[in-house]
Amino acid sequence: MRILVGTSSKMNLTSTEAAGYLDTLRPLVADLLDRDLFVLLPFTSIWIARDRLEGANVGWGAQDVHPEDAGAHTGDVSAPMLADLGCAYVEVGHHERRRDYGETDELVMAKVAAVQRWGMTAIVCVGEQERLSFDRVVEIIAGQLAGLRAFDPRRLIVAYEPSWAIGIGASPASPDWVAGVHDAIRSELAGAANGTVVPIIYGGSVSLESAPTLLGQRSVDGLFVGRQALDPRVFAAVAHVEPAASGESTAS
Ligand code: PGA
User: Fold this and answer.
1) Which residue range is the domain that position 172 belongs to?
2) Mean pLDDT score, 27-55
3) Measured from the CB, is residue 225 less than 6 Å from ligand 1?
């Protein structure tokens, strides 16, 4: 499977800033033809990605979507609007949306349906809210993934993002933990995906230092980078990281 490396800028990068970001990033990753790269921007900056990334080896997308295609939903943005801007990816169910807007698994699945209806790939974020036992975490994630059976596995990416590992002051989950959870997700998805292997990426305080070891873990198909990737040079460097052979630890 091709390694996937993506970032969400979260509520950062005005359209003017996004232009500078993408103009810096594009040449720095132009050599990475054997990997899939993506940048998820705020709705207001996505048109800049369409403008600046046309023909590049970096896909673009959104950080959320409304489950319905159109109608009386003030302030919301629909999947056809994102598809029209050339989005290939739409993130759904991020921890911060579940936390700030009370998004439920049911709503997240309705968003996956909307994304796939419009031919885009859904990046479905799963993960526990607090540090819990391994068995409990696997149980929680199985619940979050339960509805995915209904969807096209070829247009799915699962992002494991334990909320305790996300954001300023946090540190990434340990590589062993990530390997175990990703294995569990892989077997959970195996039944649902009809032989298609759904990529599973890890997110939560990924940095240039932690990336090689995380990427070297079993069942880790890629990385989802947050705040560290707000510098396009760092994102480009993480995108170039080679998986560390197991036993070779670079994580701090
Ligand atoms: P972080 O964000 O890298 O800033 O922790 C990760 C994420 O939310 O995907």
Assistant:
1) 3-239
2) 98
3) yes
252 lies in some domain: no
CATH (domain of 198): 3.20.20.70
248-to-166, 204, 213, 217, 251 alpha-carbon distances in Å: 24, 21, 7, 11, 9
Q: For a substitution probing ligand 1, which of 96, 166, 224 has the most ligand atoms within 8 Å of its CB?
A: 166
- Whether 58 maps to a domain, the answer reads yes
Domain assignment of residue 244, yes or no: no
Whether the pLDDT of residue 252 is over 70: the answer is: no
Binning pLDDT at 50, 70 and 90, where does residue 192 land?
low
Backbone angles phi, psi at 204, to 5 degrees: 135, 95
Mutate to test the pocket of ligand 1, among 99, 164, 206 (most ligand atoms within 8 A of CB): 206
- 89 CA from centroid of ligand 1 (Å): 17
Measured in Å, residue 206 CA sits from the centre of ligand 1 at 7
| Annotated active-site residue in 94, 96, 128, 188 | 94
Model pLDDT for residues 89-109, shown as the tens digit of each residue: 999 999 999 999 999 999 999
Using the predicted structure, report yes or no on whether residue 250 has a pLDDT greater than 50: no
Q: Do the domain assignments include residue 245?
A: no
* CA–CA gap between residue 250 and residue 18 (Å, rounded): 31
Phi-psi region for residue 136, left (φ > 0), alpha (ψ -120 to 50) or beta? Answer: alpha
Q: How many domains does the chain have?
A: 1
Q: What is the pLDDT of residues 2-35, one digit of tens each?
A: 999 999 999 999 999 999 999 999 999 999 999 9
Which amino acid does the sequence have at 128?
Answer: E
**Which ligand 1 atom sits nearest the alpha carbon of residue 227?**
4
According to the model, what pLDDT value does residue 245 have? 85
